[in-house]
Amino acid sequence: MRYAIACDGQQVAMHFGRCEYYELVDITDGEVVERECLLSPGHGEPGELPRLMQQRQVDCVICGGAGPRALNLFSERGIDFMLGVSGSLEEVIAALAAGELEAGEDSCFHNQ
Closest Cα to residue 66, out of 85, 89, 51, 48? Predict the structure, then answer.
């Protein structure tokens, strides 16, 4: 499964569309098999980030929060979200690989 973790520095970003970069992580059978850093193109036109993530074969985006419009656009492309995640990138990747990462409360409160 391929995850895109929205990051600011070495922390999970509170908003996926305003992050510095995405850490793309492939996990198979509890093992990290590949990692790649993808610089964020920014909060561009609606649908730009979902297209990019679909092209990169992302299955799930992990971040602190996202607005309802973004969630719908990603859902239309078959990409899931895990919201309410916080902490260091390395801790989140370790929890993902162990099957222990849990979603929390969405940290995004704006209307889109």
Answer: 85
